[in-house]
Amino acid sequence: MRFALIGNPSVGKSLIFNQLTGLGVEVSNYPGTTVELQRGNTCFQREMVELVDLPGVYSLEGGSDEEDLVRRFLERQDTDAIVVVVNVTRLERNLYLLLQVAEYGLPMVVVLNMADEAAKRGIEIDPGPIRDLLGVEVIQTAASQGKNIDRIIPAALAASSPSTVEIPYDHHVEAAVRSLGKMFGADRKESIRALLGFGDNPELLEAARTIADEIESRHRMTVAQIIAANRHNFAHRIADLTVKEEALLQQTDPDSILTRLIPGMPILLGILVGMLLFVFIAGSFLEEMIVEFFEVFAMQPFLALGLPPLVEELGRSVLLALQAGLGIAFPYVFLFYIIISVLEDSGYMTRAAFLADNAMHRVGMHGGAVIPFTLAFGCNVPAIMSIRLLHSRRERIIASFLVTMVPCSARTVIIAGIVASFVGIGAAFSVYAIVFVLILATGLALSRVAPGERFGMIMEMVPLRWPDPKLVMKKAWSRLSEFLFIAMPLLLAGSVVLGLLEFFGIMALFEAIVEPYTMALLGLPGYSATALTFGILRKEMAFETLAILAGTADLGAVLSSLQLYIFAVVTVLFVPCLATITVLLREVGSRITLAITVYTVALGLLIGTLLFHLLG
Asked: What is the pTM of this model?
């Protein structure tokens, strides 16, 4: 059995999907598209059930990749039942998509989510009218609390017949539907879609276009506008029957504070600065404890064994990789993901987007671009993937340049672990200042030369809520697991290779060749070039590799403050990691990816050279 989840953005659809499927979710592209969807399995009464989480959309008749994917999925009838997830606090708007899905004639279950939010607002919901008018099962849920989620799969399994709803369209549209049915044998759904310009039958589309032109000449409105108005009116009628709202005591609206320039912008800046301070200070404390533990209880006892030189070098390389990965990267990555998860689950992200709208317009984008930028603080890969939400290729190109420059959690590891730990917290913040000035300058330049249109912003303002600690930790751990199961094996393998190269003298030869150049340009020893190269695999590996090549995690003992500062700045600006390059190739093509790579390499070396000659 296969069921698909459909809904507007930010209705809790993905949260319900995760609660039903748990771990083992597969992310893949839908055939013929670059849009990703999630698939997961669950077992109910010894029967395996596959769930598909389709992208959030507001309509099925737009031109975006996400809308095209959902349309194609429904047309193929590639599912046994549809689970339509609705935000009950914004019922009328959500019903518009629900009515569109109902017209596809698939078995359906309606999930009225966010019942807890409705109760807080004094909104009473009567699911009876939706159940009666659509002829489908209706379930009220509170996904953030896990309430009634267990009823969804049984209801979907029991759904055997499609919705019986027929939207009352304008009499001219109804007449057109009857005419197309008589001429071509098309059913109601096919006729409506043909009038809107969708379908595979050329003759049906041509006849529908002729009728649509005649209707438009009479109404002074397109058929699409008439049909949309009819659907909105019907959704309004259903919402009026379903929602009963009680008066609440006057309460302070947090959005009146968070979305105003003053004090909203200082609050946003305070949150960002506080987040970085917490990661720097708490991460440094944990790093010191873990590094000391490895040194005392692992490294020193191992070296005291007196093993053969090659075995000792390999064992030392593995221990250094573990010390660097767990001691240097793990504390910062985990803390950062916890904070990002809190901001996401609280609903603050959309407030940040609203505040950032004016600033984003100055660099050729709109406030919605703050979502990729904020995601980029965690990882550039999902941030690059999210630029497809932007309206035009112009915005996506500008965003792809700027997002790859945002200090991700791996770069934060470098800034916190090198600069904050061995140079100072003030110097660490100055690295961010340098990067953000360069991002602003790059954005201003690109906004003037990149061709294409500019668009405004339409974004769902999700409700503010207290994050669930369990869900926050689950999400943070899910993101951290990528580091543990992807970065750590790479780091271990890379450390062993480096140990072998160093043992046989190859590393010393390479470093002797490049050292005159690295010293002349950046004032850095030759092994820093090796560390930068490994940073292409994963950014934090540049730092960890530097510790391995230096022979100690106490980098302040082998490099000066200026050298550490320059290495950190160059690494942060240097070529994106391999995963980011791979996603860039898919999202913006090889030419833009090459341009971004060349630009960031040149920028990193240029700024590093300037710093060395100005401060040295």
From this structure: 0.63
